[in-house]
Amino acid sequence: YPSGSLAIIVIREKKRLICIIQEDKPNNAEIRAVFKSNGRSTCYYPNGAVWISMSIQGGQYLDQEGSRVRRWTWPNSIMSSGPHVPLSPIFISLNQHVGVRILGQDKITVSFLAMGQQAKFNVGTKVQVSDECRLPPPAWLGEDELLLLAFRVRILRLCDRLRGCLNFPSNEQRDKVKPPAYLITQTLKILQLCATSDISDELRSSVRAIVNA
């Protein structure tokens, strides 16, 4: 960056290449995006929330509350179920110097512009798929991750309830206000993950109790 802080790092990890974009800070800089040559990549909002998440199957674009704005599948991916959803071109600015353009699985570009000079990095990849080679299934969340997600939704629901108490002192008015759509969506997603993940019945019951409390 013009400030002298490191903006983009490209490293090799065994047979993979990893491109890391950092925020413009001299110390303890947060990561704004990670692109891996195995097809797994993530971009983050300034507050740390996931902005864009991509895998070898496709990707999704989220808002800052965690609700999905759009999703897509790559043309050459083989999904276990569900229709193929084409990608609409995406361009985001991680900050005033770094932008990300997504036009396809192998057409993902990180652009760096500062002091009248520009550098571009192609961080896309191409996964070849044949009838004999099917993509591996997506990794399931672990027990700790499921619990953390459940507690996060629970805290968000409590904060929403607190706002309702402040805005609507009357119980009758407050009971008529429904939770935000993104909270309902996230609750349903966690319950679906519980149903499909390989976890104990005890943990499954605990997660359900947390999000439904």
From TrEMBL:
Record's InterPro entries? FAM194_C (IPR029281)
Which Pfam family is an annotated match for this chain, by its short name? FAM194
Q: Which domain of life is it from?
A: Eukaryota
Q: Which residues form the FAM194 C-terminal domain?
A: 1-176
Give me the segments passing through the membrane. none
**Any idea what this protein is called?**
ERIP6 protein
Native organism is Oceanodroma tethys
Lineage at the top is: Eukaryota, Metazoa, Chordata, Craniata, Vertebrata
